[in-house]
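Posting this for the archive.
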Amino acid sequence: MLLNFLPVFLLAEVMSAVQAAPLLQDGVKSLFDRAGGGHPSWGGSARRGGKFPEIGSPEWKALYPPLDVPPTDMPQAWLDALRSVEAQGLIPPLSVNPISTLWPDGSRSYGDLSGISPEICNNGLGCGSPLDTSVAPEGMLGVSQDDGPLGPGVRLYEYFEAQNISATHFYVGSNVVRNYGIFLQARNIPGQHFAVHTWSHQYTTSLTNEQVVAEIGWTMQILADNNFGLIPAHWRPPYGDVDNRVRAIVREVFGLKTITWNPDPQDYFVHVGLKSKQAVKDEFEARVRGPKSPGLIPLEHVTSVEAVDIFIETYPLFLEEGWNVTNIPDLWSEAWYKNSPSGEPSTRLDPGVSIVSPRRSDGTFAASATGGGSSLGQMECSHMLLWAGVMVGAVGAWKGRSGRMGALVGAVAIWGLVSTWKH
């Protein structure tokens, strides 16, 4: 970033000086690596100057955990954030919210608690927690699609683009790695909003605290890395399986809002033969024709051709019935991402941002360590200009090039100071 702003004669002098001083090279690298946090798998300097791996390349895939299983590794910053909120008593202990057991028949048990008890209130079992958001404002319908990016979604994305539909995509991190081309297709369509659906689509109440952090954190990271540095602000638990322990971890460590749904059209039953497509459509259309208070956040998927068909064939009815149709955050005029203003972001950030968002003293969450128009930020870039001047001057003195280097350090330092003042 810095080098792009330097005139050619300054750039040549800086590079010549740095190449002559191995110790100074280490200092420059350290300065770049400290600026703006960075991706846990590679230093801050590695993502600058077009060095972020090409999406889909082996180097890019190596940045992320194995697919379809809970990640076993995570950046220390995420673990530190978890330990901090645990120490503050912000996460219910396992004695209050035990890890659930998933039985072979698909049922779950929560120790001595019921799935609809206040400590659990599992949306997938029909319980509506006040800590979750499951309904839209009156007259509004939130469009969201779960489990992508997947092949059946390609046709849906084409429909979104043709109809100018703005939707929220609750993405599975493993599927982003596997189907990165489909992700890029969706990302490049105006009006598409991306949110978290975990890394490997587990029942989150069956995970340890550390596994919950890794599932959420890695999905946030891959979306931020590959969606211009925009940090997700919303998540949806797979199967609606969530309890107060998981809610607290996701809220306190990452500052995400939990989005569930109402109604569930059960589009996933069609592909496996448990319900006909017509039956699903009839029930869903009856709800769309019903009262407009509260508003709707239907649960819909891109897991099958039939599920995509149901949305495409039902969407015209949304408009005929007078629903105000939009993506999830626009239902409440909220920011789409943690480091963007309300509405579709106009600022595109660099990849590799830090996603951990500690709670401020006033109870709100910091957006990220790297908000702003670039991963370095304007202030950091200005400071680096000043540092460059100081370092060039130091090397000049060391090499005995006092005249030319003295003029150079003055020009660069003044440039850095003016830039800092302006921003």
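Strands lie at 101-102, 108-109, 140-142, 144-146, 168-171, 193-196, 234-235, 257-258, 324-326. The longest strand covers residues 168-171.
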